[in-house]
Automatic annotation (TrEMBL):
Xref: PROSITE patterns: UBA (PS50030), ZINC_FINGER_C2H2_1 (PS00028)
Residue ranges of domain UBA in the record: 105-146
Top-level taxon: Eukaryota
Name of the protein in its database record: UBA domain-containing protein
InterPro entries named among the record's database cross-references: UBA, UBA-like_sf, Znf-C2H2_OTU1-like_C, Znf_C2H2_type
Region of interest called Disordered, as start-end residue ranges on this chain: 166-205
Ranges of biased composition (kind: Basic and acidic residues): 174-205
Source organism of this protein record: Fagus sylvatica
């Protein structure tokens, strides 16, 4: 039987295609993949239409939402794996030379908005790139989905000219809304704490300057005729 998935030998995850395996490798640095005859599940919730890729994911969805009915559409989604690497745009074969890795270009306006909300630059850049620079909402959705990734706060590096399509969220709209609110609240609190810390630093600097200011200000209280009095006394 032809393989219908690729299995990661490092974590056991099943991937539907070579593209998924490449994205998994970029996110996790895992590189041990083998062809598998076990398909990636496609369990569709009949209540909200959320797709689940595994029994564990469907159980978690049931626990979160109370939805218990799923339709198994695995056979419809399963396709034979094609291991042939795509050819370059000019038709030339891969030279085998290592590709240059660069930080991807992202929407600077959206990046500034995310940073203003309190998200670290690396996390915001990674989220914008893998969300396809679609929108602020799509980017926050990506952060919700991947907030537990070990490399969530690492600046992404991708081959030159790489294009990534926006990923579809696997949470329900209700779950996404709740998680978005939670993330915004965390980011807001983090920003407030940073502002308070900066304010305390400024106050400390002001306190350190006070004794010097008093000392300098003391010269203003010296009588103007003190020098004249001293001169008369010497005479």
């Amino acid at each position: 039987m032809a393989g219908v998935s690729l299995q990661c030998g490092d974590c056991g995850a099943l991937l539907r295609s070579v593209d998924e395996a490449q994205q998994h490798a970029e996110l996790t640095s895992h590189s041990n993949f083998s062809e598998s005859t076990e398909p990636v599940l496609n369990l569709i919730c009949t209540t909200c239409a959320k797709p689940c890729r595994s029994k564990t994911e469907s159980d978690l969805h049931t626990k979160r939402t109370g939805h218990t009915d799923f339709v198994d559409k695995t056979s419809e989604a399963a396709k034979p794996i094609t291991l042939e690497a795509p050819k370059a745009a000019d038709g030339s074969e891969d030279s085998g030379q290592p590709q240059e890795m660069v930080v991807p270009e992202v929407d600077k306006k959206l990046l500034e908005e995310l940073e203003a909300m309190g998200f670290p630059t690396a996390r915001a850049t990674r989220a914008l790139h893998y969300a396809g620079n679609a929108s602020l909402e799509a980017t926050i959705n990506w952060i919700v989905e991947h907030e537990n990734d070990p490399d969530i706060d690492q600046m992404p590096l991708v081959p030159v000219n790489t294009k990534v399509e926006a990923s579809k969220p696997s949470l329900t709209p209700e779950e996404l809304k709740a998680k978005q609110q939670e993330l915004r609240e965390k980011a807001r609190k983090k920003k407030e704490e940073e502002e308070k810390r900066m304010e305390r630093e400024k106050e400390k600097c002001g306190e350190n300057l006070t004794p010097l200011s008093v000392a300098l200000g003391g010269f203003d209280n010296i009588p103007a005729n003190m020098g004249q009095a001293a001169a008369i006394h010497l005479e």
